[in-house]
Amino acid sequence: MMENFRMPPATTAPAPRPRPRWWTELPLLALVYAAYSGGRLLVRGDVSTAVDHGLRILDLEQTLRINFEHPLNRLLTAHSSVGIPADFAYASLHYLITPAVLIWMFRRHSQAYRRARTWLMTSTMLGLIGFTLMPTCPPRLLAAGHGFVDTMAQYSSYGWWGTEASAPRGMGGMTNQYAAMPSLHVGWALWCGILIWRHGRHPLVRAAGVVYPLITVFVVMGTANHYFLDAVAGAAVMGLGALLARPVTGLANKVGDAAKARFARVSTATESPDVSAGCKTSAGERIPGQRTSSADPTDAAAPGGPPAPADVPAPAGSAAGRAVGGDTAAAAR
C-alpha cells in the first residue's frame, strides 16, 4: 500500500502578484508621459537635417511606389467633409482612446494590465529614441513644390489647433514638429486595436479594434503629418515593445521586490528591542519587595514560605472552614 502511494509533485508556479493600485499607477504614467513630452522638446534637431531625412524618405517611397500619402492628401484637401473630421481625429483621438483602453484594461482585465502598460511605456520610450536619432520633417512642412497641403492649417478655423500640428493656438512652441519618425499615432492606435481585439467580447467591439488602427493610418497620411514609412516604423516600434514587455516587466518586479525587502530590513532594524522578551516568572516566584494577600492559597502551600497568620479566620465556605468547624463540634461532644 505504502509503495503505491506517491506524493503529488510540488508546484513551482509563482504566486500571482497583487493587483496594481490606481494611486501608484497614475503618478507612474504621468511621469513617463512627462518624460516623453519633455524628451521630444529636448531632442529637437537641426531643421535642415530633418528636411533632408524627410526628402530621403519621400524619394524612397516614390522609388518603391508606396507614396500613398499623396493621393490621400489630395482627397482631404479637395473635400472638407473628409478633411475636417480627419483633422479632428488626428488632433484628439490618441488623447482619448489610448487612456480609455488603459483604464478599461485596469478595471476589467487586471491580470493583463501590467504587461499591457509596460508594453505601451516601453514602445513610447523606443519612439523617443527614434526621434533623437532621426529627426524628420513631416510632408506638410516640405516646400510646396513637393505637392503636399497642410490640412491642419487649411481647416484650422474649424478646430482648436493652429498652423503648428495639433497643438492649440499659441502653444506650438510646446511640441516638436520634426518628430515624425516613427509615427506613435499609429503605434498607439495599434496597441489599442490589439488589446481591444484580444480582450473584447462583443463582435462589434472586436471589429473596432481592427478599424481604429486603419483609420489612424489613413488620417496621419491624409493630413500630411506622416509618411507611409513613418506608419510602418510606428508599427515596428510597437512590435519591438511587445517583445521587450515580458523581460522589462520581470526586471521591474525584481527591482520592486528588492526595494521592498530592503525597506523591510531597515524598518526592522529601527524598531526598539523588547527588553522583556523571553523573561517569565515561574509558579510561586515573587519579585523581591512584592506584597501578596494572605488569602492567597499558594503562599501557604509554597515550601519555605511563611505560615498564614493564625488570627485570621478562614472563610466559612472554604475547606479549611469546614475542617475547623468539624473539630469544634467533636470537642464539644
The average pLDDT is 79
Q: Strand content of the residues, in percent?
A: under 5%
- Please count the beta strands (DSSP E, at least 2 residues each): 0
Number of helices: 11
Give the SSE order as H and E letters: HHHHHHHHHHH
Share of helix, binned: 55-70%
Shape: globular
What is the C-alpha radius of gyration, as a whole number of Å? 39 Å
Strand count, sense and barrel status of the largest sheet are: none
CA(first)-CA(last) distance: 76 Å
> Stretches where pLDDT falls below 50 for ≥5 residues?
294-305, 308-312, 316-333
Broad structural category: mainly alpha
Please, could you describe this protein's structure?
The protein is an all-alpha fold. The protein has helices at residues 22-42, 47-64, 69-78, 80-108, 110-133, 151-154, 184-199, 203-222, 228-270, 297-301, 319-332. Helix 7 runs antiparallel to helix 8 (203-222). It is globular, with a radius of gyration of 39 Å. The two termini are 76 Å apart. The model is unreliable at 294-305, 308-312 and 316-333 (pLDDT under 50).
